Amino acid sequence: MNELGKRILTSILLISSLYFSYTNQVFFITLLVIIFLLSIIEYIRLIYKIEKNTFNIYLYIFFGILYFVIAALFLYLKSYEIKDLVFYLILICIATDIGGLISGKLFKGKKLTKISPKKTFSGFYGAFVLSFLTMFLFINYINLNLFLIFVFTFSTCLLSQFGDLFFSFLKRKAKVKDTGNLLPGHGGILDRVDGMIFSVPINLVFYTISI
Length: 211
Fold this sequence. Notes:
There is one protein chain. This protein is mainly α. The chain has one domain. It contains seven helices and no strands. Helix 4 packs across helix 7.
């Protein structure tokens, strides 16, 4: 099977996992724990490839794991309180990723940053286009006014792209293409959830503060 075929098959499995996570809380918690543990492992491997100073390694690992733990616990708690919003934010992250990929490949154009040579301005704007199209598809399922939905959609898309660039920066420093090879055609777990790691928990904090 070629790379595109692997990517499509893995994407179908990931979308199916998202659906079962929405319909079954136990499945969601189990998947969250698995992603949490595998993400930490991949993150630690990256740090060891980047940093040579032992003290800095332990420092980066400590704060990295601390953030992962807080983010995972917060996501777990909010999945009981505001499940629809949690999964909506995850969908926006997925739309951001897909919109950026398609638009970037179709229109190419000027590079967005040196951190990730494949990222272009067309991909950056395309991510917002598909995110807002997704917003209009699910707007009736989210119990928020239009202004807040717009703000959370924009913020999630923006932070998702920031998360993608942040881990691209780490991979560049570590001189690796992917954080792992667990997902055929996609790389590692962090390669798929890098945008969600920052955007979903941070926007859930924004929601908690604003409501």
